[in-house]
Design goal:
Strand order of the largest sheet: 6-5-18-17-16-7-8
Shape: globular
Radius of gyration: 25 Å
Number of helices: 29
Helix content: 25-40%
Number of strands: 28
Largest sheet: 7 strands, mixed
Mean pLDDT: 94
Low-confidence stretches: none
Length: 757
């Protein structure tokens, strides 16, 4: 094994792992970083990395452009509150920046209470896992916020898993926990993978190395079933593709269970011993035969039956689920069905099945930030119970101890139940094109606050419009940290993130937390000398020091299979699952506890041909959004020239028959309009999209355009989020319409070359 650091001529070559930025979920891809004269000159894949084996996405390959981009913010900055929206930033020292932030936070805490401070968290950042401790431990506030309506990314799947399986986030088994990988004697290749609303190659979401799908197909003959309204690259190589009408997935999943139960394709021994509520589930899914699901979903009945039988007969079978679960008001019921499909065949946490995480690696095995804040005396239980949305959406705010984003937007606008006075925007862009529904409303609300601070790498629309202090964030080669796949919820390995170079005066999220924390609550924060100390205390509970992981580069978890038999899933270390019954719950007691039907049910999307037929006369297309692409991560990378050459402008996919009927031509600018707003994207006419459905790219803004208000880098021009409604959650508070809205499409004037030059 090559050492983590070696000298080759004038270059020092480091083996390390990627963690955002530059925009990656915690897959921990292996890098070889070439440094010469204190500067990164080349980034390539690490062939010795146990998972990625030398492969890299374009985002990491263009890291030198990202690190040294002339627009990157590399020094702390401030401006006067009256200059929000204007490019009147001035460079300041870190000491002054931290003093300003701490002084404003103290003022808010003294006058209004710590709950008057809100912390935004982004997605995929190293700080993503840390925005809750940033709120609870740095500011003493209960209010950390992921700003997407219905907490509709990853959160619903984590919640459903907690309710029904009680184990860390389920993932397909591609031998990711073992140093010898596919040679591991206990591993088997999945015979079939059911990929539901997932784009693994483009997204590599949360910890899944998407290329594993190709490995398994190519080397072991694994077959795929794809559920997606688009025909993807993987779809062209699948056994069955079900191009479902967006938002109707729950009906399809219930039909899968109907076939598997009626034809007795399930594991009777596992069901009897380890599950709860099978008879009730059987009765419920009997109401959704494939014929009925076919009418609802717009897919052939025979294809539904074929796919269900293929999955039910596979030994072993695995399932990969994506944002189709999260971005759907009926999504937690879809999640019920998919968890049942993972378990009912007996291949949950089994070789070649769907893996779960060990209790020893869960985040709740580490320090709980709210409990620690209470223990040290700067948060009371009363303050903790003031988190916004707790009483309106208890299912969300208890399983994911943050605020409910829709309730937070209500509070920002109304001042009820109390006024918010300060926001810390940690690597997020809620007033921009990133994640939030109704970005215009977040924009207006944030501008009214007394003080706002942002941590990021580039100036964003949110920072330009709303913030008073800018704290420059380090990339994954500019600070020390650890990457844990799936944010610790189902870790396959721990990877070293190393400080290899210094660009300007950037700092990592945890280091920034320590600096602010020492000013506000020294009784807690004085125990940490730096950010690595905090990382070790908060995140590393698995027996290795950061130095040991650096030397090894990666440390595999080597978790066993069948952890539910060994007491490695329940907190009390008893056999079973960490649910109310100690079993996989087909009958969801937690759903019932929070006031919802404990069994899965299908409900039409709130906008569509069944729910709003009159609106469909004006808005005839089903709009789905948010599919990932290789050149960007959400709203990031728009200023990176090489990546913009891959994807220069946002595009709207439309079937050729639909385009012809509308008189629209490929590559022309079009308006996309819903009942809630409109934006412009370029039309991409393609037979790969289901008829009657259009797909719009998300996260688009134009860093090359004028940054000051009102343009804000073209923030409103192609931002598909402006077309989305607000507060269309399901009964438990999860879900939104990003993947099942309605719209019309018509010619637009476009964004001219003069505007983008």
């Amino acid at each position: 094994m090559t050492e983590w650091k070696r000298q080759v001529g004038e270059e020092t070559i480091y083996r390390t792992c990627a963690w955002s930025p530059p925009g990656c979920h915690p897959v921990g891809c292996g890098l070889q970083v070439h440094v010469k004269d204190g500067k990164v000159v080349k980034v390539e894949g690490d062939p010795e990395h146990p998972i990625t084996k030398g492969a890299l996405c374009p985002r990491c390959l263009t890291m030198t452009e990202y690190l040294y981009h002339p627009d990157r913010i590399i020094y702390p900055m401030k401006r006067a509150k009256e200059d929000r929206g204007k490019d009147k930033w001035e460079r300041i020292s870190w000491d002054e920046a931290i003093e300003i932030v701490a002084d404003n936070a103290k003022k808010v805490i003294d006058e209004h209470g710590a709950e008057a401070i809100m912390v935004f968290g982004g997605t995929g950042r190293e700080g993503n896992s840390y925005y809750r401790p940033l709120a609870n431990l740095v500011y003493g506030s209960p209010n950390s916020c992921y700003a997407q309506s219905g907490w509709s990314c990853y959160g619903p799947r984590v919640a459903v898993t907690g309710f029904l399986l009680g184990g860390g986030y389920p993932e397909i088994d591609y031998a990711q926990k073992f140093p010898d990988r596919y040679e591991h004697p206990g591993w088997e290749a999945p015979e079939v993978i059911l990929a539901w609303g997932k784009a693994p190659l483009e997204s590599n979401a949360d910890g899944l190395w998407g290329h594993a799908f190709i490995d398994l197909m190519k080397d072991f003959g694994t077959k795929l079933i794809i559920v997606d309204p688009r025909m993807t690259w993987l779809g062209t190589r699948a056994e069955v593709v079900l191009q479902v009408r967006p938002g109707t997935d729950t009906a399809l999943a219930m039909a899968f269970l109907n076939v598997i139960i009626e034809e007795e394709l399930y594991d009777k021994g596992f069901v009897e011993k380890w599950t709860y509520g099978f008879d009730e589930l059987k009765e419920r899914v009997a109401t959704m035969p494939p014929s009925k699901a076919a009418e609802i979903c717009g897919v052939p009945e025979e294809d539904i039956t074929k796919a269900a039988r293929l999955y039910g007969n596979a030994k072993p079978s695995s399932l990969s689920w994506g944002l189709a679960v999260d971005q759907n008001p009926n999504g937690v019921q879809l999640g019920q069905c998919l968890c049942a499909l993972m378990a009912i065949t007996g291949f949950i946490d089994a070789p070649g099945g769907t893996t779960l995480g060990s209790i020893e690696n869960f985040p709740n095995a580490a320090a709980d930030p709210a409990q620690e804040a209470m223990k040290y005396g700067f948060m009371t239980e009363d303050t903790w119970n003031k988190r916004i949305g707790l009483h309106e959406f208890p299912a969300v705010c208890n399983i994911i101890p943050t605020v409910h984003p829709d309730a937070m937007l209500d509070t920002l606008e109304s001042g009820e139940p109390y006024q918010i006075h300060m926001a810390h925007v940690a690597s997020s862009n809620p007033a921009g094109a990133a994640i939030s529904s109704c970005p215009q409303r977040w924009y207006e609300a944030l501008k009214k606050l007394d003080f706002n601070v942002v941590t990021d790498l580039f100036m964003t629309p949110t920072a330009m419009a709303c913030c008073d202090v800018f704290l420059p964030l380090a990339s994954c080669v500019e600070h020390d940290a650890i990457v844990a796949t799936h944010y610790g919820w189902n870790t396959s390995f721990y990877g070293a993130v190393n400080n290899l170079v210094d660009v300007g005066e950037t700092k990592g999220e945890s280091e920034i937390m320590v600096l602010i924390g020492k000013k506000l609550y020294p009784q807690f924060w004085d125990q940490f000398e730096n950010g690595t100390d905090f990382d070790t205390w908060y995140g590393l509970r698995f027996g290795y020091t950061p130095e040991e992981i650096r030397e090894k580069v990666t440390v595999m978890t080597e978790e066993p299979y069948y952890k539910y038999e060994k007491g490695l899933i329940r907190k009390d270390r008893e056999p079973g699952f960490d649910t109310m019954t100690g079993r996989v719950e087909f009958y969801g007691n937690a759903y019932e506890y929070f006031g919802d039907d404990p069994l899965p049910y299908y409900k039409e999307p709130p906008y569509g041909p069944e729910a709003t037929p009159q609106l469909m006369e004006e808005f005839p297309f089903i709009l789905t959004t948010g599919a990932r692409n290789y050149a960007s991560f959400h709203s990031e990378h728009r200023q990176i020239e090489s990546l913009r050459q891959i994807q220069e402008y946002p595009q709207l996919d439309m079937h050729p028959d639909d385009a012809a009927a509308m008189g629209l031509k490929d590559d022309e600018w079009v308006w996309i309009e819903s009942p809630f707003g409109r934006c412009q994207q370029k039309l991409h006419v393609t037979p790969t999209i289901k008829k009657g459905v259009v797909h719009a790219m998300h996260g688009w803004w134009y860093p090359e355009q004028e940054g000051e208000e009102p343009n804000l880098f073209g923030n409103w021009k192609s931002n598909i989020n402006v077309t989305m409604p607000y507060k269309v959650n399901g009964n438990l508070g999860f879900g939104d319409c990003f993947k099942n809205m309605i719209c019309k499409v018509y010619p637009g004037e476009g964004i001219t070359e003069a505007e983008v030059s």
